[in-house]
Structures are given as C-alpha cells and as structure tokens.
Design goal:
- Helices cover about 25% and strands about 20% of the residues.
- The chain has 16 helices and 19 strands.
- It has about 600 residues and is α+β, with helices and mostly antiparallel strands.
- Helix 9 runs antiparallel to helix 11.
- Strands 13-17-12-16-14-15 form a 6-stranded mixed beta sheet. Strands 8-9-10-1-11 form a 5-stranded mixed beta sheet, with helices on one face.
- The two termini are about 35 Å apart.
- The longest helix has 17 residues.
C-alpha cells in the first residue's frame, strides 16, 4: 500500500519499530517530558505515542479535524488503496477483520471486526469461513448480511473497469476468479460461485490455492459490506452507506467530507470503536505548511501521516517544547524509484544497473530531510518486515554513487547517454526534492532525466499507474513509496512485484516487472505453512528482484509526526505505516 502508503499502498499495512535512544531525533531530548504544552498541560514526551496511548480518554463531544494536502484516491472502501484511507475508512466501513489499536508492533495484532471470530480454515488453507456478529445494522437501520460482504468483494475486485483503485487479491486467488465478469456485467443473482453465503451470517471463501495469511487479506476495507441495491458504481462515493460508528453528513468532491455519529451503530456489536467526537471534518487540498501549523497548534491531524515538512522539521528539532509533542518512528515503508522495464532502454538490465550505480543515495536522504526521515536502503524489504536480509548488491562508497561503474554498465547496454522522464507527486515537496537529487546524480553519467509532476490523488489512476501513459510519455523512472498491505513479506511484495498485479489503471507494479521465477516464488510462499520457510522465500524474491535491478531502494522510511495536544487517544500503529490509529481519537475540550 502506498504511503499513499497508498501507497497501505500505497501509503501500506506496515510494521513499525520505535526509534532507539541513540537516534538523531532523541539526541538531547531526555528532558522532553518536563516540558509544558501551550495550554499548560504536561507533555507526554517525544515518541510517547510509539510506546503507548497518549491522552487516553473516553470523553465524548467536540469536532475532530483531519487535513490532507491533496485528495485521496477515494472514500469508497472498495475503491481505495492509500494506507491513511484504510485507516480512516474504518469509521464508516467495518471489514471482517481489522487491527487492534495499540502502539508499535501491538498494532499489528489482528482482531475480528464485522466477523465474530477469526476465519476458520479448511482444505489445507484453500477454504475460509467467517461468521458475522449478530445485530449488525447499516446507518438506515437495515440489517447487514453475509450477502453484502460477498457483494462488496465482487464489486471491488471484479469490476476493474469501474473500480480500479484498490488491490485485486481476491480476483487473483478466488476459485474461478478469472471467469467472473463482476456484478455490473453479471446480472445473475448467484454472483461469484466461489464465495458462498449459506445463511445471512456466514460467508465462505473458496480459493484456487492455499492462502495462509487470508485473515490479513479480509482486514482490507474491500470486505466492508455494501448493500447491492444502494450501489451506484463509481458514484457510490457520493452516498456511502455506513456500517461503522460514523456516517457521512456531507461530501464535497475535492473540498471536504463531514462525518457525524451513526445513530444505528450499536456498541454491543462493536468492542473496538468508542464513537467519541460529535463530528469529524476531513479538509482536502490544504497547503502542507498550513497543515503543519494547524497540527502543532492542536487544531488538526495530518491525515496522510507522512510527517511534517522540511521547514517545520527544522523548527521542531531546535525547540525542545515542540519536539516533545512529536513521534518519530519507522513506517515499515520503502522509498524507492521504480525503473520501468517496458520503456526502452530500461528493458535491458544493464541500463537499469547503470541507474542503480549512478544514484547518490545520501543526496536523496538529505533531500528527504536527513536520517530522521529514513535510513539509506539497499533491499526491497525494509528491516522490520519478515524476510528482510541485509544486502547491498550495488554498493558504492559511502552510498554516494559510482560514476565509473554506472558508465561501465551503460556501455554494456550499448549506450553512451539516455534521455528519459521521471515522475513524482506534485503535492509532496520531499518527493520532488528527492527526484531532483536523483536527476543530478544521473546527469553525471549521461542519463538525462526530466521531472514530470502529477497530483498524488491521480498519480496511479491517470499517470504513473497507467502503463499506456508511461510508455507514451517515455516515463522510464517513477518515484514511489510503499508499505506492506499487511505485515509480512507477501503483504509487502505481492502488489509491486507480481506480474499478475499489473493493471491498466491503478497499477502499483510501476516497474511492470513480470518475472516467472518471482511469480512462482510468491505463489509458493503464500501456500507455505511454516513461517521460517515462508520468510526464506521472501528473502529469495528480494535478491532476485535486486539482481534484475527493477527498482532503486532509496530509504527505509521514517516519519516525524506532529502530535496535536488537544486530541485524545493518540497512538502510532504499525498496522498503518506509523500513522496514528484513527479509530478512537477524541477531542480533549469541547
């Protein structure tokens, strides 16, 4: 998922680790706990939300505000793939499973949500059965049934010409998934035969192969119920029917969304949500610097969870009081540059290797904000994802690039120079700065790259994630940030490396990498019960990918979040790329 997350995608379900006391961020911060907030209350201290819940409270009332610098891919739970939307959407869309609110690794714990218990596997992991909780209702008081869950999966995975933004795991792995045309084309009442609903509270998934991590898969918002009679395809986003603790009062495309309490939500059917604020406002297209100001003033939360801007970071790190209200953590994400294997001359491995050796990763790290924003990377898997093994196939002195080796590979590719384009998201200043640093590195070896900027809300739907567009526009290099869809090697690797994941819009395999050995290893891994054996397969996939030079790892992402002092129940969670868990945040003062 993109950190976007996204990029879950984009911005990732992701694993997290608290920053150690030796980190740059904590240097000189040992007395942070003694600082007072502007309202006179005692600060919990730097990194407090990576270790526990800050300002724990059950106080109800008030208005909670989120701010985003662009627009999300979609508020539709079946048509989104950004980590922050996976996180936020749980307020109005309850998936079968979700993640337990908790700090760090505790946040990776799977718990039942719409389901009464975890899935019951049979047939060696090829069949999974879930029972729904009793008494579940939509916002209009009508009952939620297993058929609504089945339909939600069908619309989100099998109508890619209509809803293309989310992952397509179910389409890939359901038995007969390649034959089903989706609910908008299939007018029969049966739907996908491999999802059965023997009664209103039971849903059974029949897979074409064993899938040992299926509970993680059904934690995606794609399993949140959708009543077929209320579905309007891509326009469903305008009138989403809530199954969660909040419902939409209003939605203005590109401007804001306002959520209010769902009066038909019943706490007896939901042990996770607290329904604290009276109102939740999501403001869109807010200037990034304004977001930082509002966050540090206690007026808003940065919805994207990608951290403060460079200028704000400098202010925070030199002000002990401000620093005490921040959380710095790994986000289980990789910042990288995809090399498009379908755009000449990067269809040749030697030209891709030339790029690998040319990039000065220290300059990229500096452009992103320094070590506090990420450690220099050399593998596909981050250190906090199972399957990671330390390796550096294209090592250069001090990670600053090697012009001679890059030119050597360029010569082996039959080139003395290359002209190409590099894409990046226009509303992400640090990504733009990183791309600019890469351009400067590449120029030294004869690779001339021109920067092309596109808005993050359309980055995957209209630009970088559209293979025809990238080929036509000669976009050979694409900036990317990725976090695991769930905390395993498979959850991280599948959607960016599997050839079957390539789609004509909403694509996240930006390299368009389709290697039969990698595809086979991924298929073998997900059917392997033994964890150690499964993780060793993920390590092999990482090595093969790096040998093929299809992406340039830049940094293992870290996030520096501003923590609003006026909000309650703030906890940085591994499940959502280090973001605060959005399920139960409240307002300290009405």
């Amino acid at each position: 998922m993109e950190g976007k997350a996204p990029i879950m995608r984009r911005s990732a379900l992701a694993a997290i680790a608290a920053i150690g006391t030796a980190s740059l961020f904590l240097a000189g911060c040992s007395k942070a706990d003694d600082n007072k907030n502007e309202n006179g209350t005692k600060s919990a201290g730097a990194n407090a939300a990576t270790k526990g819940v800050v300002n724990a409270s059950d106080k109800k009332g008030g208005t909670l505000t989120y701010e985003l610098s662009d627009v999300p891919d979609s508020f539709d739970p079946g048509n989104t793939y950004y980590a922050y939307m996976y996180n936020l959407s749980r307020l109005w869309a309850r998936p079968l499973m979700t993640f337990q609110p908790g700090a760090g690794e505790e946040g990776n714990t799977l718990v039942p949500d719409l389901a009464a218990s975890k899935g019951v596997p049979s047939d060696g992991g090829k069949t999974w059965t879930y029972k729904l909780r009793s008494g579940l209702k939509y916002e209009d008081g009508s009952p939620i049934t297993s058929k609504d869950v089945k339909y939600a999966v069908e619309r989100s995975n099998f109508a890619r010409d209509v809803l293309s933004l989310g992952p397509n795991y179910f389409q890939q792995f359901m038995a007969d998934g390649d034959k089903y045309k989706g609910p908008y084309k299939d007018k029969s009442a049966k739907g996908l035969s491999s999802i059965e609903t023997p009664d209103d509270t039971t849903v059974v998934f029949h897979l074409k192969q064993a899938f040992q991590e299926f509970d993680y898969l059904v934690a995606a918002p794609q399993t949140a119920p959708v009543p077929q009679a209320k579905d309007t395809g891509v326009d469903y986003v305008k009138h989403i029917v809530s199954s969660g603790s909040y419902k939409f009062q209003s939605y203005e495309d590109g401007k804001q969304a306002v959520l209010v309490r769902n009066e038909n939500w019943d706490a007896k059917t939901d042990p996770l949500r607290k329904q604290l604020p009276d109102k939740i406002v999501v403001k869109l297209k807010v200037n990034p610097e304004t977001i930082d100001q509002d966050v540090m003033a206690g007026k808003a939360i940065d919805l994207a969870g990608t951290g403060v801007q460079a200028a704000t970071q400098a202010q925070v790190l030199t002000d002990t009081a401000k620093k005490a209200n921040t959380d710095n953590t790994y986000g289980g994400r990789l910042v990288y540059m995809a090399i498009n294997t379908t755009v000449a001359p990067f269809d040749k491995v030697e030209c891709r290797k030339a790029v690998q050796y040319a990039v000065d990763k220290v300059s990229v790290q500096t452009a992103e904000g320094g070590p506090i924003r990420g450690d220099i990377a050399s593998t596909v898997l981050p250190p906090d994802i199972p399957g990671y093994a330390k390796s550096d196939v294209y090592a250069t002195k001090d990670s600053k690039g090697d012009v001679a080796k890059a030119k050597e590979q360029l010569k082996a590719c039959g080139k003395t120079s290359i002209s190409t384009n590099i894409s990046a998201r226009s509303d992400r200043p640090q990504e733009i700065d990183a791309a600019t640093a890469i351009i400067n590195s590449l120029k030294k070896v004869g690779i001339n790259a021109t920067l092309k900027q596109y808005p993050s809300g359309k980055y995957f739907t209209d630009y970088a994630g559209v293979p025809k567009f990238t080929k036509k526009q000669n976009i050979g290099l694409e900036m990317m940030q990725w976090g695991a869809d769930w905390p395993s090697g498979y959850g991280f690797l599948q959607q960016i490396l599997n050839g079957k994941a390539i789609s004509q819009s909403g694509n996240t395999n930006l390299s368009q990498y389709d290697n039969k050995d990698v595809n086979a290893l991924l298929a073998k891994a997900i059917g392997t019960q033994d964890n150690a054996e499964r993780n060793s397969l993920y390590t092999q996939i990482d090595k093969k990918t790096m040998d093929d030079a299809v992406l340039v790892p830049l940094t293992y992402f870290k996030v520096l979040l501003g923590r609003p002092t006026t909000y309650t129940n703030l906890v940085s969670t591994a499940a959502f790329s280090g973001q605060y868990d959005y399920l139960n945040i409240g307002v300290a003062s009405k």
